[in-house]
Write a sequence for this structure.
């Protein structure tokens, strides 16, 4: 039993690290991975999620949430999107919409991202996940980017539903 649990833990760790180090340089490192005291927000209902996506500007209001969730698995290896979640290799994404880049106090961002002046909205997140190094050349984020515009639209829509209170 102990071996099975250890193997499961090892496999889970491998999955978490599988998306890290793909393209670019080393990822931004967390200064702290402590959990916030804030309770996690409840997941939105299907109706609430649909309304959240509908409120996004075009073309993000056409997002396919199932595809976005599937594509977001690449992001989960370095980011958690839940309220109260800690930082991983990348910062927690809860509340990312409307937040200034590099503004979480407990994460060690690259100097380029700190100086970027970016405020995260649907269009800016789309540009970022297409090619982070085109947006901030000296970012430490190691993600090579999602090339498909439709996949990015879907990820932005899904991200809105999992990082914003319903």
């Amino acid at each position: 039993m102990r071996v099975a649990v250890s193997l499961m833990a090892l496999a889970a760790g491998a999955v978490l690290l599988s998306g890290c180090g793909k393209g670019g340089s080393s990822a931004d490192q967390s200064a702290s991975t402590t959990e916030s005291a804030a309770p996690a927000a409840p997941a939105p209902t299907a109706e609430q999620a649909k309304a959240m996506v509908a409120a996004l500007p075009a073309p993000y209001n056409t997002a396919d949430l199932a595809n976005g969730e599937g594509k977001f698995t690449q992001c989960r290896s370095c980011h958690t999107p839940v309220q109260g979640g800690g930082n991983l290799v990348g910062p927690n994404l809860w509340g990312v919409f409307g937040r200034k880049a590099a503004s979480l106090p407990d994460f060690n961002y690259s100097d380029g991202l700190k100086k970027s002046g970016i405020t995260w909205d649907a269009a800016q997140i789309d540009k970022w996940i297409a090619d982070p190094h085109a947006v901030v050349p000296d970012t430490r984020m190691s993600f090579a980017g999602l090339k498909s515009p439709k996949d990015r639209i879907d990820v932005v829509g899904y991200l809105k539903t999992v990082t914003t209170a319903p």
User: Anything to note?
Assistant: The radius of gyration is 16 Å. Helices lie at 2-18, 46-54, 65-76, 111-115, 122-130, 132-135, 149-163.
